[in-house]
Amino acid sequence: MSHPSPPGDRPYEQHPPYEQHEQHPPYEPYGGPYGQRPPPGYGPGPYYGPPPPRGGGVNAAALVALILNLLSIVSCCNILAIPGSILAGLALRADTPPDRARGMLAWSWTLFGLGFVLAVGVFVLLGVNGYLDD
Questions:
Q1: What is the largest CA-CA distance in the chain?
Q2: Does the pLDDT of residue 119 top 70, yes or no?
Q3: How far apart are CA 98 and CA 102, in angstroms?
Q4: Which of the four pLDDT bands, split at 50, 70 and 90, describes residue 113?
Q5: If pLDDT is split at 50, 70 and 90, which confidence band does 105 have?
Q6: Taking a C-beta distance cutoff of 8 angstroms, is the pair 66, 92 a contact?
Q7: pLDDT tens readout for residues 77-104
Q8: Are 117 and 72 in contact (CB under 8 A)?
Q9: Each residue of 32-67: b (16+ CB within 10 Å) or e?
Q10: From CA 28, how far away is CA 132, in angstroms rounded?
């Protein structure tokens, strides 16, 4: 008498195919034909619009002017850099209108440059007259 063998004895035995509940379309590796819509969840994302406009660089220039004015006060005793640093600090404030901030920034750079030219002129004058000799 032959006994029915357990299912694990013959691993290569042909079994009836599993039931398929629904038919899927054939796999297309690069999407559907041209002109068809992609399946849901694919395709372009939502449109967010253009990036916000840039501030014009007033903040960066004001920060550089403030730092250079403060350094020239400490290192060169530049008296004109004191109002220049105050104007640069006021230009950095958030509630200052952009046009007014640009004006303050222009005056800050002007005072910085004028103070630097005066400091160089004083050192040249002192050197020419012999006050810097030992």
A1: 130
A2: yes
A3: 6
A4: very high
A5: very high
A6: yes
A7: 889 999 999 999 999 998 889 899 999 9
A8: no
A9: eeeeeeeeeeeeeeeeeeeeeeeeeebeebbeebbe
A10: 86
